Sequence to fold (347 residues):
Amino acid sequence: MTDRSSDIATTAPIALAGEAMAGEAQVSDYVALLKPRVMSLVVFTGLVGLVVAPGNIHPVLGAVAILCIAVAAGASGAINMWYDRDIDALMSRTENRPVPAGRMAPGEALGFGVVLAVGSVTVMALAINWTAAALLALTIGFYIFVYTIWLKRRTPQNIVIGGAAGAFPPMVGWAAVTGDVALGSIALFALIFMWTPPHFWALSLYRQGDYKRAGVPMLPVVAGPRETRKQILLYSILLMPVSLAPWALDVSGMIYVATAVVLGAVFLGLAMRVRVNDAERHAKALFAYSIFYLFGLFAALLADGLI
Amino acid sequence: MRQHSEQHRRKRGKNIALLAVLLGMVALFYVITVVRMGGA
Fold:
């Protein structure tokens, strides 16, 4: 088992006996490739970046920019599922995805993802502006090449650095309006970037059996749950000042500050509980709350931007 | 025979979805063109 895991950790995806033939997939399988739940957070943060950016954009073009961000996120998910089909088959959380479950041929997933990726960047460039398109291409490239192919199977820092991919969407939304990169948009990037490690490490604490079986060197697998709990708390503490940066840079107002302080205090409390108590339910609670936290913060940014 | 009709059903579903996507893209490019040309 260990030998197989280490093989998987150091080699490219292997062909699986149960792989499907081309043409067997249903429409629902293509939808699943887009990782709709991840897409919803990406779309929402991209929308907030677009709304709080200084300046105006025609509502139709704003909608097109958000559509491009959504399609690019889906494309990244599809290419990720093509590359990770070998380890996805070994984890209970991912074994039912279309490719490892044998409902879709790997080449179909790759082709689908590449077409969507190229299409979304092209439309962003032609309809919106080149800065937004370049940032969108960077987001897809970072997720596929830096996170999925380079870091994920090699280092426990995979989601720390790879988290940048999930942090780009508000910068893309911002750039769609202004055509540039500003301190304000970098603050939104930093917020998601710092949020990602405690979010994913909370998940990996109670899914570490999966990651171990698949040979993915998540922090609990490599450094142990105790060190992971410590790192979760450290990153949660660092997240607090970073969460106030949008206010300090005048991107947001008092609704956001109040929300960031209150939701942040709860986040810290849950992270401390995970640090001192190793019951699995506390890690699950932190993971679930972390999603609510990010939605709450960006909803407050949206409220400040619209009022 | 049953397998054949099942494959046919899946293919039909995908074709309809593809048609919807293509029509959506036609509408999208039309609206983008109108807006970019300052017509809206």
Summary: The two ends of chain A are 57 Å apart (CA to CA). Residues 280-306 of chain A form the longest helix (27 residues). Confidence is low (pLDDT under 50) at residues 1-12 of chain A. Residues 27 and 33 of chain A are 10 Å apart (CA to CA).
